[in-house]
Amino acid sequence: MHVVRFQSPGGRPQAGVRTGDTVAPVLGVTDLAELLRLTAEEFRAAVAKTGDPLPVGDVKLLPPLDGRGEVWCAGVTYERSRGARMEESGDEDIYDRVYSAERPELFLKSPAWRLVTDGEQIGIRVDSGHDVPEPELAIVANAHGEIVGFTVCNDMSSRSIEGENPLYIPQAKVFAGGCALATGIRPVWEVADPKDLTIDLVIRRGDDEVFTGTTSTGQLIRGLQDLIDVLFVPNDFPDGVILATGTGIVPELDFALQAGDVVAITISDIGTLTNTVVVGREPFSYLATESLEENR
C-alpha cells in the first residue's frame, strides 16, 4: 500500500490509500497535512480506516505533500557523491570534510506547492548548461519527528553552478521543476530494512538509454533517524517534512541532461518516478495558480 494525495474530477485534493489499481479516501481526514500532524501510532491507525475505493484511472494522483510541508535534502552522504562534488569543484577539500563531519549537510529544497510528481515534467535552468538528476530515498517524517514512511525523490541539480562556487548551492538546487516526488508514501511498517534498498536510474534520449546507474541505500553513511533528528533541532514542521537522503548515482562530468530526456528512478519496495525534462521556469507557472485555487 501507499499513502497518496489524489483528486477526483471536480473535487478537491484529499488523502487516500492506494492498493493496487484502486485508491480509497482516508476517512475523517481531508489533507495529507492532517495525517502528518498525528503521532506515528495515530498515523497508522488513521490510514487503516478508508472509504469506498475508486479506480486509479479515474483520479489524478498528486505530489504526496501539502499544506506547510517542505522538502529538505541531505548532501554528500554517499562516497560517489563526495567524489563527484570534488571532481566538479575548485575547492575539493570542502566536500571531503562535509562527508566525514559529524554534522550533515542539510538544505531546504522545496515547499509543497512547487513539487511535481510521477509522469509530470521536471526542469533545468536556462543559465546552467550542465544539469543532472539525483535519485534519492526520501524519508517522510511527521510533525513529531517520527519516521512514518518513504518515497522516491529526484533532487535535480546544476553541476555547473555548484561547481563554480559551493556557496551557490541554493541556486544549483532550488528552481522551477527542480524537485519531483513519487506519488506514493510507502509506510515505514511495510519496509523491512530501508538501509537495504536498491536504487536504479535510467535516462532515455529518444530510443536510446544514454545513462544507467545502480546503488544501494546500504552505502548511505548517515543514519535515517539521525538525519531527521538534526533537522528537527532548530525547526518546527507542523505539517510534516520530507527529507531526501542524498544520491549515490552521479553521471560522469561529460554527461548533461537535455530537453526531452526521460528520467526514470526505481527504488525497490518503495516505488517509481518517471519525468520528462524541459528547460526554464515557464512550464511550471501553473503550480502557483493551482496552489492558490487549492487554498480558496
TrEMBL record:
Keywords, alphabetical: Hydrolase, Metal-binding
Q: Which residues form the Rv2993c-like N-terminal domain?
A: 1-64
| Gene3D superfamilies with a match to the protein in the record | Fumarylacetoacetase-like, C-terminal domain
The coiled-coil regions, if any, are none
Residue limits of the Fumarylacetoacetase-like C-terminal domain?
A: 103-278
InterPro entries attached here? FAH (IPR051121), Fumarylacetoacetase-like_C (IPR011234), Fumarylacetoacetase_C_sf (IPR036663), Rv2993c-like_N (IPR018833)
Keyword Hydrolase set for record: yes
Identify a single GO molecular function assigned to this protein.
hydrolase activity
Record's keyword annotation contains Metal-binding: yes
Q: Which Pfam families match?
A: FAA_hydrolase (PF01557), Rv2993c-like_N (PF10370)
Domain of life per record: Bacteria
Family that this chain belongs to? Belongs to the FAH family.
Name recorded for this polypeptide: Fumarylacetoacetate hydrolase family protein
